[in-house]
Amino acid sequence: MKKFILPILGLLLVFSCTKEDPNEINDSVIESVESQKLLSVEELNAYIADELKTNGDLDWFKAPATVLWSAAVHGGNVISIGYGEPGQSFSLQRSPQLIGARNNIIEIISNTEQQKSSDVVKNMDETLNFVDVTVEDFNTILALQKSKDIRYIDTFYTGYLQEDEVQQKDFGCAQSGENINGSDYRVISPNSWLPWNFDIHKVPQAWNYSTGAGITVGLIDTGLSANQSLLGSNFNDGASTGRFVQRFGTYIDSPWWWSNNIDGPNDRCGHGTSMASALASPRNDNGMPVGVAYNSNLVSYRGTSDVVLEDYHERKGVSNALKALGNRSDVKIISMSIGYPWSIGNVKDAVRYAYNRGKMIIAAGGTSTSFTNWYGVIFPASMNETVAVTGIKDNGYNRCSNCHDGSKIDFTIVMQRAGDSGRNVPVIGFNNGSRNYVGGSSVATATTAGIAALVWARNPNLTRAQVLDKLRRAGEFYPNRNGKFGYGNIDALKAVQ
Question: With CB atoms counted within 10 Å of each terminal CB, which end of the chain scores lower, N or C?
Fold first, then answer.
């Protein structure tokens, strides 16, 4: 996962206004409208740090009006508003109540901003119950916080990540090949490399029962490299036959909020290519690493440019990818090695949409530096609708160098050598003929998705709940649940039996 960097903070800001009830703005705040202060990045960061450490999440809608407005301004003056009652994340046919709630929000903004509704609305989702709008006036925030039928308000403020890291926008990306230590793989027929950690999870033994044939897995990440034929024209290679790979793009690579220029399905980062390899690369005859479910089908969506969902178009891209995969009857599993430190409303809505359609959504618990010491599982792995996975070292239950753990974790995958943090899981590289290592909770997630595909292929008539139960029963701690590592390491052989 992208490395979430906690900025160096000074003393926490003491805000002059207290948190209000979302539907009641107290008199002191109303009186301060004329003298509202645009908070600095440092002040906003202090507020965010306090919320995350106190509550484990951030709810912009419940923030003081000055905080919410400042975050909106620093985030490009665009906010996302989820409307309806709690639990109304999506609707195939909107009720008059939902339509009225949406129209009321747009009317409030149009009146306070003194603009036509067509000028303030930037995106109105057809399935998920949210709308993206422009906000510049502080009074708009006050009016929205007094309004009913609002489930959430999200801003696109990214200043909590260090500015130089945001500008790089390459978290989790790697395109250069690496030399693989000879102890980190062994050669199997028909001249394929078996990653060292597959033996720990008894994946080769599980292949005697299932190789993932007939199961389609969705992958939402940075896409697939156009330069790696083993994830393209040679997806059927060696012992991998009779399957398909498809690639789509929902990410818009543009700074303009209203742009509809889809950037295409090809990976420009490398992270998605690595995840696809760990999950489903072919059991090839080219001396390249094999994936767990080497006979499964793969549907890749480039929904993001890297693995941290801070950008407007990244969130929209992931949300649209979840909807598209949710609508496919052949897709059983969705693997997501991406996320953010706090909840994102429209992505949460989309997760629930796909979950409602029976998809098993497997998400990364988080990989970071400063966050690792105090923060638990990131979003969307923190949701009840997802299966949260993290990575550990090969010397017992010690999380990987930068992996998160916590009560929300469901499973673990061994993916790092205890004596060398750089020796993780070998995967096929960004370019033909290259290989590299990939680590963190990301590769643990893709590996788990592959094991789930093996189980479902072995038992094609099972429901999601039944497949998940088999994974749990194959966990090292089952029937108990560890406070940091869930059911622990999955025994793939036991899972398919």
Answer: C
Question: In order of start, what are the domains of the chain with their CATH numbers?
Answer: 27-166 (no CATH), 169-496 (3.40.50.200)
8 Å CB contact between 418 and 368: no
Rounded distance between C-alpha atoms, residue 253 and residue 208, angstroms: 43
Q: What is the separation, in whole angstroms, between the first and last Cα of the chain?
A: 32
Tally the C-alpha atoms within 13 A of residue 321's C-alpha that lie toward its C-beta.
34
> Token pair of 263, please?
């950037």
Geometric angle at alpha carbon 86, from 82 and 90, rounded to 5°:
55
Extract the tokens encoding 375: 């923060």
Closest CA to 363 of 347, 383, 343, 392: 383
Contact criterion met (CB below 8 Å) for 12 and 18: no
- At 273-313, the pLDDT tens digits run 999 999 999 999 999 999 999 999 999 999 999 999 988 99
Confidence of residue 159 (pLDDT cuts 50, 70, 90): confident
**Three-state SS annotation for the chain:** CCCCCCCCCCCCCCCCCCCCECCECCHHHHHCHHHCCCCCHHHHHHHHHHHHHHHCCCCHHHCCHHHHHHHHHHCCCEEEEEECCCCCCECCCCCHHHHHHHHHHHHHHHHHHCCCHHHHEEEECCCECEEEEECCCHHHHHHHHHCCCEEEEEECCCCCCCHHHHHHCCCCCCCCCCCCCHHHEEEECCCEEEEHHHHHCCHHHHCCCCCCCCCEEEEEECCECCCCHHHCCCCCCCCCCCCCEEEEECCECCCCCCCCCECCCECCCCHHHHHHHHHHCCCCCCCCECCCCCCCEEEEEECCCCCECCCHHHHHHHHHHHHHHHCCCCEEEEEECCEECCCCHHHHHHHHHHHHCCCEEEEECCECCHHHHCCCCCECCCCCCEEEEEEEECCCCCECCCECCCCCCCEEEEEEECCECCCCEEEECCCCCCEEEECHHHHHHHHHHHHHHHHHHHCCCCCHHHHHHHHHHCECCCCCCECCCECCEECHHHHHC
> Which pLDDT value is given to residue 373?
74
Confidence label for 40 from pLDDT (cuts 50, 70 and 90): very high
